[in-house]
Amino acid sequence: MADPRTIARQAVDALGGRANITDVENCITRLRVTVGSLDRVDESGLRAIDGVLGVVMDDTVQIVLGPGLVNEVADAMAAQAGADGIRPGSPERTDAAGLHARGEQIRGARKRRNQTPVKAFLRRIANIFLPLIPALIACGIIAGLNGVLTNFVTRGWAPWAAPVTPVLAAVASGFMTLIAVFVGMNAAKEFGGTPILGGAVAAIIPFAGVAKVTIAGEKLAPGQGGVIGALLAAILAAYLERWARRWAPRSLSMLVVPTFVVLVAGVLTIFPLMTLSGWLAQGIGDLANGLLQHGGALAGLVLAGLFLPLVMLGLHQALIPIHTTLIEQAGYTVLLPILAMAGAGQVGAAIALYVRLKHNAGIRSTIRSALPAGFLGVGEPLIYGVTLPLGRPFITACVGGAFGGMFVGLLNQLGTTVGSTAIGPSGWALFPLTNGSRGIGAAIAVYAGGLLVGYVVGFLATYFFGLSKAELRRLNDEGMDAESERTSAERV
């Protein structure tokens, strides 16, 4: 098992040394490292580190490690990046070097195309919500457990749980009640303001007292606008703060700037922003639900089929505000289980390649190491290490995911809504978070059915159409040649 400290030490060296690292953060699966110069980063060296599942070069260097390990490596790297005595490691290169090299070329071209203002803005929005994912997952699982116990109590199967369910409900709901505050703090920080001021302005949204405010004859509702309103309010506060600091006298800035920011941004939040963001949030909910109710199968096909390219670009995190809004409204997001089908298609495609390339030990070794993460919803190792460099298997993987999404979308259209009570995990890791209109049991069954469809279609599409006869022969011949060379070297 890979040692977090060893991974951190080798990663610091491959990232250009401690002097090149300016910030280290992590989400549920990825380590996100801000570096001074991307030119000093040894991407191949990062990929070769034992325990690293994939690398995405963007405005930050994203190192895919998987759940659990990423937290330990983040802590170790944060310590080692500022420590003396870090020496270059000597990680062993992985197999299937040709595929890795091709994947690196694709990532390099994608990185150059990806530096646009719109995509940079979306990444900033994603950075606001990433730190919230662990709490969202924890509260989602607790909410699911509480739902099961509540159902047992209602049916008389577990009377002992009656006093337990209110406690679990409070634990699960407390964070979601005040999520606007945390969004506000993170948004203010991301846009150059003071986090506590962003939180103070965003706290107006869940405040019960806004129910006494009347606009155009209608009273505001606490929580109106949700995380979208909090996001807009905090961004406004950050810009107002930066502007105020330019003109406020230095001797009075401690008093003038915070008061000005909270007062002006707070009033603007109460009047236009809560109303406008409330309309926007309601529109998102109506659109998502209407899309699946009236065109569920087609919608699922398109959404799941296009999600892998979004993951490839590293922009899938920009969907977090939409998922969070749906969770606020209904208790779960109906989009995440459908999008998770993209990973199922990827797994099916990888298994088909494993079967077809029986003489290519390098590619088969890469697939074996990446499949466990793929089953748990971490798709980058299979994308960048296997399917994308080969070309056509990436498309057949998307086809598998599309059919899995179509299955889940069709069941939504027929009345069995399937959603996730939190965001972050997918694959098998999403099972504890599933819920829907007909209860947890039905939701789990539909989600499992979608995964199975994605696996099977991804496998069949890749097995029969993923590789041309010439390419299949070439890859197997290369594998046999490599094995022959290795055997000869061992004899010598």
TrEMBL record:
Active site feature: C27
Record keywords: Cell membrane, Kinase, Membrane, Phosphotransferase system, Sugar transport, Transferase, Transmembrane, Transmembrane helix, Transport
InterPro entries: Glu_permease_IIB (IPR036878), PTrfase_EIIB_Cys (IPR018113), PTS_EIIC (IPR003352), PTS_EIIC_1 (IPR013013), PTS_IIB_1 (IPR001996), PTS_Sugar-Specific_Components (IPR050558)
Protein name, UniProt field: PTS transporter subunit EIIC
Species for this entry: Arsenicicoccus bolidensis
Keyword Transferase attributed: yes
Residues of the PTS EIIC type-1 domain: 123-481
Intracellular or extracellular location(s): Cell membrane
Phylogenetic lineage: Bacteria, Bacillati, Actinomycetota, Actinomycetes, Micrococcales
Membrane topology: Multi-pass membrane protein
Organism domain of life: Bacteria
Primary location: membrane
Residue intervals passing through the bilayer: 128-148, 160-184, 196-215, 221-240, 252-276, 296-320, 332-355, 367-387, 440-465
Domain PTS EIIB type-1: 5-87
Stretches the record annotates as Disordered: 83-102
Biased composition, class Basic and acidic residues, residue ranges: 90-102
